[in-house]
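Revision sheet: structure tokens.
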Amino acid sequence: MKKIITLFFLFVSVTFIGQVKGKITDMKNNPLSFVSVYLDNTVTGTTSNDNGDYILDLIRKGKYTIVFQFLGFKTVKKEVEISSFPFYLNVKLEEESVQLSEISISTKDNPANRIIRNVIANKDKNTDKFANYTAKFYSRGLYRIKDAPKKFLGQTLGDFGGGLDSTRSGIIYLSETISDIKFQKKPKNFKENIIASKVSGQDNGISFNRAEDANINFYENSVEFGNNLVSPLSTNAFSYYKFKLEGTFYDKNGRLINKIKILPKRKNDPVFNGSLYIVEDDWALYGADVSVTGAQVNIPVVDVLKLKQNYNYSDKNDVWVLISQSIDFRVNALGFKFDGRFSSAFSNYDFIPNFNEKTFTNEVLTFEKEATEKDSSYWITLRPVPLTTEEVKDYEVKDSLKVVRKSKKYLDSVNKKQNKVSFLSPITGYTYKNSFEKWSLSYDGLIKDLGFNTVQGFNTSMGVSYSKNINDKGNWWSAGVNVNYGFSEKIARPTFFFNKKWNNISRPRMSISVGVTTAQFNGRNPISKMDNLVRSLLRRENYLKIFEKEFAKIMYSEEIKNGIYFSSSLEYANRKPLFNTNNYSFARQSKTKPYTSNNPLDPTDYINTVFTEHSIASLKVGATFIFNQKYLSYPHRKFNIGNTKYPSLSLTYRKNFGASNSELNSDVFVANIRQNIDAGNYGKLAYNIGGGLFLKKKNIAFMDNLQANGNQLLFITDNQLSSFGLLEYYKFYTNDRYAEAHLEHNFKGSVLGKIPLINNLNFHLVGGVKSLFMADKKPYSEYSLGLDNIGFGKWRFLRIDYVKSFHAGIKNDGFLLRLNILN
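Predicted:
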């Protein structure tokens, strides 16, 4: 019955919707893409594709006035009488003649400045006219690649879904989305319901062309376009832009349109280049044709991003509204050459929607049932912008390949190639896959976990694991064994594990592990294995201090309600002290000079340790709250996108009990609050504040104390908002109370971008402050000033900070280097 009803409505739509089709070219017969096509006195229409082809849906036959509008060309009105469908109408557009009047040329005041000031002054009035609306949204995304490399970092890249030609060029991503959208200005809300979604070569058809991402509004002071950019209509626009009146022309209804050239005062500021088209007297946007460079959006790999917008007049509420938009991009980095376009069309505006308190919730994106399963006949009737020949071919090729590539025969043939054992497999690792039955067997290889420390000497792990995907909804499990071996102490430590996840909605996950391992005395793991290997072998600095534990542990985590994350673990362990067994280093040194000991509190004591062997159980229960968390509901998956207006709060309770020495039992509460605040054109502010409290002060094992994350390295790889830059690793610990605070502001280009000559370097100023308080120690604080985005061309990954610390009357300072790609 359901299928019959569906077919009936499809028949009705085909019967009562006719189409006007045609091709739009310039006077030299070159196709024009992104031309707005709509009925006169409406804001409902379509746009032309890259070949200049368009399709305009009409409900009935009769007389119509069809308007063809394109920035830089004269608007054309065609009066037609349609007696049958499809109705074919080809159009040629003539380039617009933009002229400056004698008054504009002779005036002492810059006429462009007057126009921009009028637009800024009328922003609220104009945007209030579409403060609430619903609309239909269509988007198409296209990525192309040229001369794609066959391998990258030694890994075969394949054919990118089958869309490449003999030169390894072609479409690698093609998607379409049709949605219903709702918008509210105050309080600002946006909601999208995806009616249909399609991705070339994919069964599920889940595209990521969100309408909110395409909601680029120049009337706001800050515009999200790759990054936060200063709008040319911002209240402080004149601090960033110069404006020039290039000329004027009249639109189809006789309104005077001003073409304003926007000129950045500083090339590396977060600003636009290009032109705005402003309606005289209405002081509203008629169109935009702008671009930004990779330096301006702080994405070095991007060559250029281009944005074009077309607005149309709605006589229902006397307002100019966005009807079409295109975003073009070009990327050239690491041997990859990408380009593409995301084009959007808005139609069926309703400026008097019936909103209520349940209209807008934290769920900002939903999918209609079976939205990803629409067939080609459905898309033919619904698609407002026709496909190009290239896009039709891509759908045909990849839809055919999709069937083949799901077959057991094809997947087995692919696995046969992938599953070949190479000469280096014992060292680099190996995975045997059965893609059809969705399981794999992996061997980790000897170098994956290679390290060096003074207790084990050179050490590495050999691991074998089995993984099985139950379905495509996030249900999977894995199990395996990992054996770590220290060549100096000649001890093997095996660990067995089992992991299980049930879905991608609340993401419930359980992990069970048992075995023998080593652990850092600071449970926050301030020193990475790679850092310790390099520092030990090259500089004879062994900051890593470890102990051994035989353990059994079970963990469980889940998002129990939107924005509320629950986590828990129960572990029973026998802890043993460890001692140095190795004194090897590449560094030149006296033959009698040893490493420091494995005692974190006394580097010169090689006999005694900070704890005695004991057994203990540990229960942890935690919750994280992301207040007012926004989220996207995709089929079988929930994407949480947070809410930058509010901080996130984490609470943890740890109870150590059942110790072989009852004095080691303890109870502690830990809290943490953090937030990233978008300061718009003034950069980004981030803070992280944490604290802890033991219910009773006792002489507990050293590793159970609350400890700060220190750093004694020049080149650091950890997160700057959870560690201190110049603090010794084990200097600050407590079994009582503590609090720490980290605050950092990246000014992006808002400070250095205004200084002549220096602004050409495109460096970003970063300032920070950190403080640490413990009940039994004097406060420790740090202040830092740094430069981010250091490099040349597209390679801008370096950051340098100058840090000054204060503790108990002692001052210290130093420089820190950081690679941003590591964070």
